[in-house]
Amino acid sequence: MPATPPDYAADFYDFDALLGDDDRAVIGRVRDYLATDVQPLLLEYWSKAQFPSEILPGYAELGVAGSPYAGYGCAGRSYLFDGMLAMELARVDSSVATFHGVHSGLSMGSIYLCGSDEQKQKYLPKMARAELIGSFGLTEPDVGSGAAGGLTTTARRDSDTWILNGRKKWIGNAPIGDLTIIWARDEADGQVKGFIVDNHAPGFAVEKQEHKFALRIVQNGLITLTDVRVDEADRLQNANSFAATADVLRMTRAGVAWMAVGCARGAYENALAYSLEREQFGRPIAGFQLVQDLLVRMLGNITASWGLVTRLSQLQDAGQAADRHSSLAKAFCTVRMRETVGWARELMGGNGILLEHNVGRFVADAEAIYSYEGTREMNTLIVGKSITGHSAFV
């Protein structure tokens, strides 16, 4: 009986082979970084609900922030690579993957997709080097799924500046970050616009959200904006309606689907390793039929989800991905993730709730991934409208 699982135990259909040699080498460096710099800190920082800032220099050296963007200090790699990267991070820790997704995807992505060339030149190189850490401020205390039409944060033009007022909730990285993309409704025309806001600007206050049972390493903030002044030069010049916000979410929702696969994969890999080491009745439990049944169910979920997000990334790289594609992936993969992490905990019995066995974190964190970047219900409405031609939105 092998002491460790075979190399193909998670990547059963060899999806890694779809990447080129250079991309695989980068993923390999990411894997080494996670094993040496991140994994040893997770138990302590997850328990304390703090972010290990000491991992940031190593993260910066990887050069993976903003990986799918061309120019401006970014690597210009494929969306397939970017998805594999998100999965690799999430298979070790969903919080670290979320930190990356907020900074690299939501924050940098807003500037890349909606900013002027001057704004890209000013911010993206520093963000790619992790010299500036970004956040994304869309959700509000009373506005989640209804953000398209219900934002209450306001922006009022005053000569060459804008005055922002309102509150934002669940804003990842805000307590430790340097800038936040704030989405606010223009009082003049009622349209949603984006702003690059300095987290240290007068009137910008962040309160760390405490007592979470999921994504405890991610630092979420409750932001209060009180007459915060932002120069016109820091208004996202190509974001003049909620359609721009939707462009960003379409891209990053695909990344969350990849993270769901990574979360499921991390739970499965730890459960598989445990089954090879844990002995009952004189032999490893990996040799029991019911344990193998759980492992194969988990592997099936992971492989099916991995195939779906791989095709989604290929559509992104071809410029053919639509909202319906990202929404189906997010809805499907998060449901399969939730199922898979539950089976992993079940396989480990009582030990499954101990953080030291590296499955309890995935079970808890799956609940956050299941909800953010569009709930399952909202994403099913997007897909349902696409396939029936009838809108069920209210």
UniProtKB/TrEMBL annotation:
Segments forming domain Acyl-CoA oxidase/dehydrogenase middle: 135-228
Any one Gene Ontology BP term: fatty acid beta-oxidation
Protein name: Acyl-CoA dehydrogenase
GO molecular function: acyl-CoA dehydrogenase activity; flavin adenine dinucleotide binding
PROSITE patterns xrefs: ACYL_COA_DH_2
Domain Acyl-CoA dehydrogenase/oxidase C-terminal: 245-387
Gene3D superfamilies, alphabetized: Acyl-CoA dehydrogenase/oxidase, N-terminal domain, Butyryl-CoA Dehydrogenase, subunit A, domain 2, Butyryl-CoA Dehydrogenase, subunit A, domain 3
Cofactor or coenzyme needed: FAD
Species the sequence originates in: Gordonia asplenii
Keyword Flavoprotein: yes
Entry keyword set: FAD, Flavoprotein, Oxidoreductase
Domain of life of the organism encoding this protein: Bacteria
Phylogenetic lineage: Bacteria, Bacillati, Actinomycetota, Actinomycetes, Mycobacteriales
Segments forming domain Acyl-CoA dehydrogenase/oxidase N-terminal: 21-131
Keyword flag Ion transport: no
Family designation: Belongs to the acyl-CoA dehydrogenase family.
